[in-house]
Amino acid sequence: MTNFSEEVAAFARDLLRSMWAELGVVDAPRRHDWQAIDLEPLIVLTAMVADSRLRERTLSWCEVNSRYVSLPRLNRFASMLGQAAAQSCKTYAAALKKSSRRVRLNVAPDLRRPSLIQLRLRELLGVSARAEALRLLLADPLESRSASAMVGPAGYGKAGLARALNMLTSAGITTARTEGTGVRYRLNRPSELAQALSGLPARFPDWPATFRVVVEILEYARQTADKAASRIQIAMAAADQIRAEIARIPGASWPPLVTDEASAAAFERWASSFVADQARAQTTQAARPKKREVIYTVHRLLLGGWIATVREEGDQPRPLALSDDPELRPERRAKRRLKLDEIGAAAEVVESVLYDLRTRELQRQRGSVVPREAVSDSRLPAMSREFASELLRPMHKGQAATFTEEFLESWTAHSRTGFSATA
Question: What's the rounded Cα separation, in Å, for the pair 283 and 35?
């Protein structure tokens, strides 16, 4: 029968294998493909927990992909996780220097994976406080945050983060607002930024906090492996340490209060379940964050023609499509002999709306930006003309109509049954 110590150690190794699989290291089940990976805390936990095979493969990854690794963050998180973590990282770093004895594996990460948003940001901004500040703001793009609130998960000091945030504000990526005695920062156009970064994962866990809990559990297991007599006292201390971190882990249950043998056993069940949940944390569609509201607006212009805009919650409206209308081009008026097909002009912008709608659906499924040419549906032109005839025909010049993403999804789902795809 597997004892508690062996059980939590096995779960911790499963957690490592799944996360390193996202980075391309091991052929293991990928259970964290919709969770943002944080590289330096992962390396620290690996140095402490990994078996020899995984250790060697991760050392090879670090050697090949050293440009992605932040040594200041690595040292900071090793220090935060305690003396054992610091010593393990020192040993890991020493092994990394002995690269001549290691078979060099080609383990370049696939940066298109949603989980590797941190590495994509580092490709864009370098291994810097700016990249980490932007990652943390993207984690909750509709909320503003202060530099001091981001210090822990960012792995940089408050002064460095404040400088990074000020640089992002100067570039127009964030907005700074003074609240009370501090300054809070918020993204200006989060949805456009997410598209530019090839999409975002569903969750941005606080891995430093999570790993501190895991390390505390593993340390408790080590200490009690041959000290059954002092198990209650060790469990009480471990539970107290864990409570200081657990509030930073959304959805995590709190460890039970340890007072006697029964509650110590309950603590071990909680601890085993916690590590198992991290190892098996596959984000289902139902558990993913609620998508932000998207509104499409179609305008019939006073001068003729149509224009469509799209606005995602938290962003400003942006132009989506403009009909190719002769009335908007004076040089073409003299050549026009037939009456303008207003429905056809309206259908042009509706087709762009439906393409945008379909693109968003595929982006959510794949976790990356899907190019327009990848969205292929031969029914869209006919559906667009039907939509324009049914819903836009009554509009007069100067009027506008708005449609939610949910309404358009419902309308297109119903309308597709009336059209047969030809390609």
Answer: 8
pLDDT at 375: 63
The total of other beta-carbon atoms located within 10 Å of residue 50's CB is: 22
**Interval 184-205: pLDDT, tens:** 999 998 888 887 887 788 889 9
Confidence of residue 416 (pLDDT cuts 50, 70, 90): low
Query: How are strands ordered across the β-sheet holding 182-187?
Result: 145-146, 182-187, 174-179
Q: Which pairs from 83-92 meet CB under 8 Å and 24+ separation?
A: 84/48, 84/215, 84/219, 85/44, 85/47, 85/48, 85/215, 88/44, 88/47, 88/48, 89/43, 89/44, 89/47, 91/47, 92/43, 92/46, 92/47, 92/55, 92/59
Tracing tokens 């490592």 back to the chain, one arrives at 16
**In this structure, which amino acid lies at residue 398?**
G
Distance in angstroms (rounded) separating the CA atoms of residues 86 and 79 = 6
- What's the order of all strands across the beta sheet hosting 318-322? 318-322, 306-312, 294-300, 400-404
DSSP state of 370: P
Q: Are 24 and 109 in contact (CB under 8 A)?
A: yes
Question: Lowest-confidence range among 37-51, 281-295, 300-314, 372-386?
Answer: 281-295
C-alpha span between 41 and 220 (Å, rounded): 20
What percent of the chain is modeled with pLDDT above 70?
84
Distance CA 47, CA 59 (A): 10
Beta-strand pair 318-322/306-312: antiparallel
Contact 258, 232 (CB under 8 A): yes
C-alpha 163/C-alpha 65 separation (Å) is 27
